[in-house]
Amino acid sequence: MTAQTRLSAKGQVVIPKDVRDRLGWGQGSSLEVIETAGGVLLRRPHERKTLTVAEATKQLRKQFQYKGPPLPIERLSWSAEVDEEFERSRK
Predict the structure, then answer these.
(1) Cβ pair 67, 89 in contact under 8 A
(2) Which phi and psi (to 5°) does residue 83 adopt?
């Protein structure tokens, strides 16, 4: 869709209502202003926080931490028996 608008003396731009409605942009919506070779791009900012590999690994280790007794390496293949031992150790 193409729409036209004007720049005000204060540097404000009105985004047409049908465009705002279609994009779900209401009053007070936060927008990123990105300068491009052809003009300006408006978009909602990314709300996801990007994690480093180290941060993601730390979170996963914390979430899936095994608190039981040490297991020999040959018992580390995933099986129903390991699941049962893990559940017993969490109680």
Answers:
(1) yes
(2) -60, -45
Element (H, E) at 83: helix 80-90
The DSSP H or E segment spanning 34 is strand 32-36
Following DSSP, what letter does each residue of 36-77 receive, concatenated? Answer: ETTEEEEEPPP-SPPPPHHHHHHHHHHHT---S----GGG-S
Give the Cα separation of 4 and 17 in Å (integer): 12
pLDDT of residue 73: 78
User: Does the structure show a pLDDT above 80 at 30?
Assistant: yes
Cβ neighbours around 88 below 10 Å, total: 9
Question: Is pLDDT above 80 for 65?
Answer: yes
35 secondary structure, DSSP code = E
